[in-house]
Amino acid sequence: MSKRQIAMVMDLNKCIGCQTCTMACKTQWTNRNGRDYMYWNNVETAPGKGYPRGWQESGGGFNDEGELKEGRIPSLTEDYGKPLEINYEEALGIGPDGPSTPWTGVTRPHLKPEDEKFTTPNWDEDEGEGEFPNSFFFYLPRICNHCSNPACLASCPRKAIYKREEDGIVLVDQSRCRGYQHCVAGCPYKKVYFNPMFSRSEKCIFCYPRVEQGKPPACAKQCPGRIRFVGYLDDEASPVYALVKKWKVAVPLRPDFGTQPNVYYVPPLSPPKYDEQGRLTDKPRIPIKLLTGLFGPETPRILETLKIEREKKKRGEPSELMDTLIAYRHDEMFTITDEEEQGF
User: Looking at the domain assignment, is residue 300 inside a domain?
Assistant: First the structure.
C-alpha cells in the first residue's frame, strides 16, 4: 500500500478529441525504440472498438471473489495494427494529368480494399452509433489507471511491477522484467505494452519525473480543452478531491474490472433526440445503458447533478461545481505538492 495516491479526473464534457494529449505523450515517451505502436495515452471514440481493438472484451482484472480472471494478449497486427502507407498525391487528387477529385472521406481510392479492413489506431474515430439525425459519440481519453489493486502487478511472477510508496504510481522494474507478458494479459484495460526490441513490458509512468518537480503529466498540461485535473485523493484543497469525494461526480472507467482505478471520469451529458418531425425531445441521444456500462450504476445520479448545476449557472446563480469544472485558471487544476508542503 502507498502512503498517498495521486489521481487524475477527466471531464468528458470538455474533450474535443484533438489528440494533443496523445502527441504530448508520444513525442516525450514512445516515439522510438520498439514503442512505435504504444500509445500510453490515446483518445478513443465511444462507442467504438478502442485501442487495442476490443480491449473491453479481452479479459483480465478480477472476479467477484477477488481472483484473477484470464485475459488475452492482443495481436500486434490484428488488434494494435500499424499506420498505413498512404499515397498523399492520390488522396489529395494530384495526379500526373493534373488535379482530380480529392478524397472526400466517403471513398478512399488511394487505399486497397484489404487496407480498409485492417485495424489501425483510431480507424473508427468519430463513427459512433445511431442514425442521422440521432447519431452520437463522445471522446474517451485513456491512460494507465495506476490502480490501487493492479491486476498487472498481481499477474507478474517476477514481482517486476510495483506501486510507488510516495504517490501510488504503478511502474515496471525493467531490471526484473523478463517479458513474459502476463501483465499484458492481466490488465483489463490493456494499458501494458510489450516492447519487442527489448523483450520487456512498458507502460504509462504518469510522468513521475515531472510529478517529482511539482508538474502535472504532459498529457494534462498540454490539454487545450482543460479536461484533466491532477492531485492527491487525500488533499482536500485539490479539485480532484472535490470532484471524486465531495461532489462525487467523477467515477472510474469499468469499475466492474475490480482493479480500483485512480483515473476518474465525469460522464458526458447527452444532446436530446429529434423526433420524426425534426423536433427536439426530452430523450437523451446517448443510451444511459451505454454510459452505465462504462462508468457504473452511479452514472444517472451524476448526470442529474450535472444538469442541475449547469442550469443554476445558466440562471446566473453560483455553482461551485461548475466553476471547478470550467477551470478558469489552468494552474488551479493541478495540485501536486509533497507531504511536507501540505503538512502531512
Answer: yes
Q: What is the pLDDT of residues 78-117, one digit of tens each?
A: 899 866 666 667 666 666 666 665 555 545 555 554 555 5
Cis status, amide bond into 133, omega within 30 of 0: yes
Average pLDDT over residues 130-150: 97
Q: How many domains does the chain have?
A: 1
- Within the chain, how many helices (H) and strands (E) appear? 12, 15
Contact 46, 139 (CB under 8 A): yes
Looking at the domain assignment, is residue 327 inside a domain?
Answer: yes
Residue 193 belongs to domain with CATH number: 3.30.70.20
Q: Classify residue 330 by its DSSP letter.
A: G
Q: Provide the mean pLDDT of the chain.
A: 91
What 3-state DSSP class applies to 231?
A: strand
pLDDT of residue 343: 45
Q: Is the pLDDT of residue 309 over 70?
A: yes
Work out the number of other CB atoms within 10 angstroms of the CB of residue 24. 19
On whether residue 120 sits in a domain, the answer given is no
Going by the DSSP 8-state scheme, the letter that residue 76 receives in this structure is I
Q: How far apart are CA 91 and CA 100, in angstroms?
A: 10
Residue 281 lies in a domain: yes
